[in-house]
Amino acid sequence: MNTNYKPLPRIVPQNINLFLGSSVGLNIDASLAHAKELLPPKVSGSVLYINTVQSTRSMYQSARKLGLDPQSTGLCQIDHQRNIYILNVMRGDLHKWKEQIKELLDYGYIQYVIVNSWEFAARNSRYREEAIFLLKDLTEGLDGMHPPMNLLVYAQETNEDPSPQKLQRGGFGKLSGLAKKVENITLEEQFADESEIDELE
After folding, report:
1. How far apart are CA 57 and CA 72, in angstroms?
2. pTM for this entry
3. Which of 143, 45, 54, 118 is nearest to 85 (CA)?
4. Backbone angles phi, psi at 44, to 5 degrees
5. How many CA atoms lie within 13 A of 181 on its CB side?
6. Per-residue pLDDT tens for 86-118?
7. Alpha helices in the chain (DSSP H)
8. For FRET with 24, which of 50, 134, 182, 186 sits at 20 to 30 Å CA-CA?
């Protein structure tokens, strides 16, 4: 799988940050590596990592390649107060997982939420709209019950580069309109091959 991506870019806190990679496969690797970067030594904090694209088995294999050791629950324990929680959602149904996300946020220490593949977060435009506003709710503390989250959303780059806080017709739409930062994380042009696509199943 391709790993030719930039280290974690600077993020805009408590907002949506949209990171664009050359392929879904690259974004899986990059988002997992960035999740690890978000947990510096001796600092409390955890990451909720939302997998929208891979099967649970494939997701855990991808995590192991990056040096993580996910339990059957999706918990990747770094130490007592530094964890990555992998939440495997049904493809296309991110908007339906609000309650499960709230339960994980109740554990405490979670400061960052990552969505590894925006293309698979919603199966149609209506669900996509609901998913976008779920992300916005997370940056505002999810019904006032939790601290505002830092959101990192990964998506495959398009022919037309989106701009932060500007609606993109026919592209990322309201997601780019809400994003405070949009950045390409690919170091050079890459293309998915058959072996990469096989690993997504």
Report:
1. 10
2. 0.89
3. 45
4. -70, 145
5. 19
6. 999 999 999 999 999 999 998 878 999 999 999
7. 24-37, 56-65, 98-105, 125-139, 174-178, 194-200
8. 134
